[in-house]
User: Fold these one by one.
Assistant:
Number 1:
Amino acid sequence: MQFHVIGDENTVTGFRMIGLAGEIVESGEETREALREAFSADDIGIIIITERVAAQVQEEIDEYLFGHDFPLIIQIPDREGPIEGRVSIRDMVNAAIGVKT
Amino acid sequence: MAKYEVAPTKTNLMKIKRNLGFAQEGWELLDQKRKILTVELMGLIDTAVEAQEIAEEKLKAAFEALDQLTLRMGRREIDLTALGVNIESDINISQRRVMGVSLPTVKVRFTDNPPYFAAPESSVWLDETIKRFREVLHLLGELAEARISLVRLSREVAKTTRRVNALEKIFIPDYKETLKYIEMSLEESEREAFFVLKLVKDRLSRKKGEIYE
């Protein structure tokens, strides 16, 4: 199976250097379309999406994340670094199991 | 606390008793499940946080190299070079099941077919960029595995906790309440029946006495 990159130009170019396919997106609509395509392709195992782009369609990503076993989605920071207000792994887990911090 | 609307009969008593037993058994099992999942979860958190930190650090370095490369070669040239890069990556995703939750295990494999470009024209940053992005990709495999596992596990923990609580705080007390109510009603009617019996016996014996007198 393959990786698939969805993100801004920089990220996609970077990963293209090591032979990954990717799609450059900006608006939420483009992202949604790219996601849909990636999900319907059956050779894609992991979708790498940048946080900034993912934030526009967070709800759909969450839905995919919980509803489907494949492909896996992973969100990474882009060149500018992590986006503000990102939920850390620990906070996410704490919220899910009901531990207040 | 509410009791169920059932007629206080022996049949219902037995039914409720059975349900209560079932609920308690279920509670024990679910509680165990929750504990096992939580242990699994706690063990994974550190791995995931660490994987994220390392991956993001490497990613930053990779973007820096890409910036340097862009300065030296230009976007267009990079895109063209990228076309010539022949690295195949292959992911092997298998599933591991913990308490009915499927967790992914990711293996990333690269197949290199160098060289990709003519050495004299290219910058040292080209090699560096490729090297760094490859490292990132390797780490991303691990990160994906850890993160997705975490998300699924924590969802399952939340779900199980809700069920455990529902059983513990609602179903079991309700069943107990109903059981008590039925038992009391049954005892009451038993006493009543006994009393009526006594009364009848008393009257009968008195009647007998009258006849024989």
Number 2:
Amino acid sequence: MNVSYLKGELLHQKRRTLASIVGLSIGVALLVITNALSMAYYQAARIPLKEIGADITVQRSGNVPKDLSGSVFPCSAVTIRDGDVRKIAALPGVEGVGRAVLLWIFDPHQAWIVLGIEQTNTVGPAVLRNAVRQGRFLEQGKAEAIVEAAYAHKFGIKVGDTLSLAKRTYPVVGILDASKAAKIAIANVYLPLSEAQGIAASSNQVQDVSPFDPHDVNLLFIRAESSKIPALAASLRTMLGKQATIGTPDSFLKLLGSLFALSDKFTVAASLIAIIIAALVAFKTMAGNIAERAREIGVLKAVGWTGGNVMSQIMAESVVQSLMGGVLGLAVAYVGAFFLSFMTVNIPIPWEMSPVPHFLPGGGDQIYKTLNLPVYIPWTLAAFAVLLSLIIGVLTGSLLTRAISRIKPSEVLRHE
Amino acid sequence: MNKADILTGKGLRKKYGDLEVVKGVSVSIAAGEFVCLTGKSGSGKTTLLSLLSGLEYPTDGSVLLDGKDITIASEDELALFRRDHVGFIFQSFNLIPTLNAWENVALPLFPVKMPGDEKRKKATELLARMELTERMDHLPSALSGGEKQRVAIARALVNHPRILFADEPTGNLDSATGENIMDILKRLNKEEGVAILMVTHDEDIAKTADRVIRMRDGEIV
């Protein structure tokens, strides 16, 4: 392979070189962008759970309380026994477990959504410590409360006030703004887990529907190895029975419904089309190139180039053009991904995970987590695109071997 | 083959389908001889040139070129043989449009394992002999017809061949430039002893050759 000849062909045959590079780059860009978009939807579906430091949520549904007064469990979140929690924590692939108790408290003059949380756990709603806007977060061993900002504003609650909940009193030590946080595990009031467990255990309405011991919970947040999430979800369903509601990124994807399904199917089809376009453009351009250059190839053979010499020169041209097409396509894809990352997507939150009583005004509405589509191109996808370009270049060059071998050195005389 | 012969073709036939273009031709060229091959269009002279130079295999017959039977060599063997023993000059120059003058001259050497500087030096020397030193870095599109043909002659000489095959080398040139090219070829023939087999229509050029072979309907007359 001769470098100056290669350079000369690429630089001086601009139309031919550009056609090949641009054609291939369109195919590669399409391939990369569609796959990046599909991955972005997968990533977006993980975000609501990731925002509370989890990959899986676990709830069990039960009966509706007979009387909506005092402290009750939502029917979508009844008791999960402490023994089951320990077994779940020991399942393979589980990296951490966060526990919580969600309660609806109907006091004579006010209704509260209360969430009991583990103050120091990094898995679960305690990640909301970053959302504290006034005062401080809950401290270990203290019976105190923090209040969600919108609720505090509505009812004029301030840091330093005392809340009376289920006949217990709690000083308000902080106000947190959960409006930008995940729509899962948000509440009006946050208490230490032990306090919420105490309220639930002493509530007849809770015990009537779902017997509850002071160490039990009704919400679990699990951090797990990504590859084991589907297997873990299956194990959890087996362990907790038919009434278990296991929230995984797939649950959110299913709710995205037709939009995601379309995107997912489109990705496969578009990827195939992109590869075919790229390969066809490369082949057509190179085949045209060989036909146009039959006389030139005849000259090379006439002056003593062997078939192998000619082949390696054409192969080098094909590979370099394909690589350039691949790199340009990748650059276009990066620009495309940058602009696509400004797109927003509404991730529907499964109703079971919504803490708001559905019988309250607006409680039955579908809630969404709105976020920017996290479009990015991982290095593996970028490397695959470049490798694919290289393979297309080599295949194209190889497929043209026969055409090149058919060109005889006497071509130089035949067209005189 | 006579000891002094550099090229001998015996009983050469070439058929394309049912059409026999060369019909049992035998011809010899002595080392250092300047032979012109003439005849009307379609008489088979260019086909005979391609058979004698190893650009094409005959349907029948044999060709001994510089002592080697080139009709039994493989295509790659033949390519290497052409590179080391034969030079070609064509009517339409056949320069590579994307290579400059010195690169076109060095084209036969590109696949040869030889330092790049040496290839350039050989090409530069030949271009100097053709009085084209100033045009070394020019692409063919920037050269006149005569300059292109001189680059083509330099390319044909880059491997010091003992025989040159020329197919109407002045056919695309005006008469003054054509004469200049003929002077160069005659000088190569007389001063360096390079044998030349040239196809031409031009009777004036043919007269200047050591010998003229005339063809009609695929046969020597």
